Amino acid sequence: MLSFRLIQSRVLLQLLLAATAALAYTRLSDASLARVPSGDDDFDATSGKLLAPILIPRVPGTPGSEKARRHFADFFAAQLPRWIVEWHNSTSVTPATGDEEVPFVNLVVRRDPPWAVAEGDVARLTLAAHYDSLYRPEGFIGAVDSAAPCALLMHVARSVDRALTSKWDAMLANGEVGGGLEEEKGLQIIFIDGEEAWVEWTDSDSLYGSRALAEKWESTSQEGIHSTPLQSISLFMLLDLLGAAEPRIPSYFGKTHWAYQHLAAAEDRLRGLSILETRPEPHPFLVDNQKRSYEFTRGFVQDDHVPFLERGVDVLHLIPTPFPAVWHTMDDDGAHLDIPTLRDWAKIITVFVAEWMDLEGFLPPLQQDGEKTDTRHSKKDEL
Fold it and tell me: Which stretch is the leader sequence (predicted)?
């Protein structure tokens, strides 16, 4: 009977957290919106520190893939050392490689409140993008697919990092910790390997890294309110095919339409304050703000969210429909990116994350050149 009551209590806590997620969202003031950085030259296709190093072929198991991973890991080690870094490794055969096992390596980084003892006591907003590129045609770069989304994730992490530290330090100083579920919110970012099909998209020839990670997290036990890492995901926000001009992003899932509306509201407010660079016509990036519940269907785009969606995770999918004209062509390179659009995405997504994490009043002034960063770093080799 005791074990049943413990299980029942855990389920009730999880339901309470899910029910209050839509309410636990603090809007940024206009003054804070003006403090959200755009990334500036970091998204330059030839010299940008975030983007340029990964505008290379990144086929799983190749030196280009390893170079991209090192870029991500070195960035967090040097600039965001408070983030915990974890690796998830798997292998699989593919239709293009015969019996040869291809390695697929996911990189997971996260920041949790410093007082959180058990990993399962934190509900994590999870942002994700795949970093691999197509096996064929040889030399394919994949700028919108998905080097640019990966650079966006790095930018977002850096943009909210100091505010997270300031908020959590203030909470500790004021004795405001341990008072309920609302305070146990963390941020998690996943760089996913092996999204692309090697020959032709099928259930087995696609999503290699995300399938392996979702399966692993579903079967991994952890202490705390959430008994698995999969249950710790409060929202899985997947970025794909971002970086082309005038994107049209639908709302795919009625269950998370409330989160989509918050993102659309961020875009609308930023445009109203003339903070964004682009002037898309005839619609904003996020076109379905007024979508009604009866307009949702069961259709969606196959992508890395599917293994998580199938296991009950709430998903917000940011992918344009129709796809950019350069999709899966050799023109999907740095020269065909629309950098103002990319910088606007950087601001819109950063605002969404800052509001989700209740960072109003904690965003610092726009960072000046030469500011020093913390040198502490946490690392874990394997999940």
Answer: 1-24
